[in-house]
Write a structure and sequence with these properties.
2 copies of one chain form a homodimer. By secondary structure, chain A is of the alpha/beta class. Helices cover about 40% and strands about 20% of the residues of chain A. In chain A, strands 3, 4, 5, 6, 9, 10 and 11 form a 7-stranded mixed sheet that branches. In chain A, strands 1-2 form a two-stranded antiparallel ribbon. The structure holds a DNA duplex (30 and 30 nucleotides).
Chain lengths: ~325, ~325
DNA sequence: CCCTGCCATAATCAAATCCTATGCTGCGGC
DNA sequence: GCCGCAGCATAGGATTTGATTATGGCAGGG
């Protein structure tokens, strides 16, 4: 048996907007038949719904004389309120149609620390040009924390290095950012004609601390044993390299952003085209704005930074 | 085939207050299952209605993550409007329960001219004592016009002499008002021990003009040929009688209201108890306030003027 | 790695709603 | 004064809506 729907004192007791619409039509036209026609239903259907509405309200709204339908005093009072309900309901529909399809208002964007300072300025410039109505709330952090913030709704989009865990998140590639070798001036590698990953020394690899995806990427590419001291940021890493403590692989956007350091650190692109990382835009898989995110990703991919490549397919 | 309800652009497009209630519950509890429980439906039913609502609005209101339900930006905006719709709808129910059951506000009351001036003061006094919140809009007129005004809604109640045409109108008797013979001083009838209808002369019967029910009543009782001149009001009739132009039958309330005329006109109650008229309260048969009208009629009957009788049954 | 929580989906079923046809009752015309 | 018309109510049957239970799938915690 069901949970006896008839007895539960539902807060709205079966009140229906359609019935209110019927009542409005009758009140305006003072004619059940014409009201039914306007509402696109048969006259008996409308009569029955009006009757049901009156039963719900406990008030007779209309006085049915043979030739004339009139509003009762109570009906006059209630129809005024019905008008308000309908106006609010219609406004709801209006508002819903005015809702922007894609991004709007303030959107939370996060970026990994090894990318944000070098890429976000260009991204902001582009977004301001194409969508000046959208404002961003920016956050930097490491991959794990960014994904947490993304999952809990604090952020809506994050810029990461691929791969992004599947399932809870959606992602689209933006560009492939090559890594450059960064070494102290006069380093032996600076003179090689071709510079391959295999050429990298197995010692003196300087890395960021745990949690930076750049650390993992470099480590997996170099097949080297990192030094035990680690840098807490790219800026620190620059200085450690300049101090001659070792070499590292740096993302190209970070390199080109600091031309003034060329005297202190020698940077050189590797000839291995695979040495680098794919930057992706990620979002919650459950976020209904997926289409907008993909559009934004496409836009960003088309306007990728000059030194980067198109991302590898897949 | 029906009139394809799916294609007609109904102004509210199937929007339902119940769905809005479901959406409110989900927005508040952030949990489909708990929201379903609060709404007294199963979780799939609620999910489906939310889905339907989102389709109608063209907006995804909620972001369904496995562990967390959150409002989308558009959902946040629309839920505020949904709150307004629901508030107005709830207010409608509140108002409907506050509607007075019976008479309230201003009620249009009509009375025939041969009764109103003599009875309405007492009626107003009584109504003010028992229902001070009800105010009356008073009209006097002849029976035909009063019934027109009653039918078209200008009036809500009328005081008439029975009978009232059945069908469109409802009516309840208030009291039986005897007629008194009104004759010039020294008239032969003044000396009779018993005064019966048969004793009335067949000549010199003075009457009101056409349209007054009192004229018809007197004429049907007297079996006399009225004089060709007629009075336009009871006051005129008094004066014609005082001038010795003839006699008439006057309703007792009009007689007792004018004690100062006793020197000019001799008034005497007939011994025929049937000589008189039954005053009734009438209303539109279609007026849903019938119970209130009957209650008022009962009240008036219990407080009938001292000189009148209880109405004849039937 | 299984177990639990939670929303979505599927299949079925009850009920609300609508339609057509018909009844009833004043009103106006011939 | 009888009759047809207008107009809301009623009846019965069909369709759509919305509800139920059962099940699936996926993420998170022990």
């Amino acid at each position: 048996m069901n949970t006896s729907p008839a007895e539960l004192p539902r807060s709205l007791a079966g009140l229906s907007l359609r019935d209110l619409e019927y009542a409005q039509a009758v009140a305006e036209l003072r004619h059940f038949g014409q009201a039914a026609e306007r509402c696109g239903v048969s006259q008996p259907a409308l009569s029955e719904q009006i009757r049901k509405l009156e039963a719900i309200l406990g008030v007779t709204l209309f006085e049915r004389a043979r030739r004339r339908v009139t509003l009762t005093p109570a009906g006059t009072a209630l129809l005024a309120q019905i008008e308000r309900v309908m106006a609010e309901a219609r406004h709801l529909l209006t508002l819903s149609h005015e809702q922007p399809e894609g991004l709007a208002g303030t959107v939370g964007l996060g970026a990994i620390e090894t990318l944000g300072p070098y890429y976000l300025p260009a991204l902001l410039r582009l977004l301001r040009a194409v969508r000046p109505d959208v404002s961003l709330r920016l956050t930097e952090g490491r991959t794990a924390r960014l994904l947490e913030r993304l999952a809990d709704g604090t952020l809506d989009m994050v810029l990461l290095a691929a791969p992004v865990p599947r399932g809870r998140f959606g992602a689209a590639p933006l560009f492939f950012e090559p890594f450059q070798l960064a070494a102290p001036p006069g380093h032996a590698l600076a003179g090689l004609r071709r510079l391959m990953l295999d050429d990298l020394p197995t010692q003196d690899l300087l890395l960021l601390e745990e949690g930076h995806c750049l650390r993992d990427h470099a480590l997996s590419l170099c097949d080297a044993k990192p030094v035990t001291r680690h840098a807490t940021s790219l800026e620190t890493l620059w200085q450690m390299i300049a101090a001659g403590e070792g070499y590292s692989l740096l993302p190209e956007l970070a390199v080109v952003a600091r031309p003034e350091l060329r005297d202190l650190v020698v940077c050189r692109r590797l000839d291995d085209t695979t040495a680098g990382r794919t930057i992706v835009l990620a979002w919650r898989a459950s976020d209904p704005r997926e289409a907008a995110f993909r559009d934004l990703a496409t836009l960003l991919a088309k306007n990728r930074p000059p030194c980067t490549h198109a991302p590898a397919p897949g």
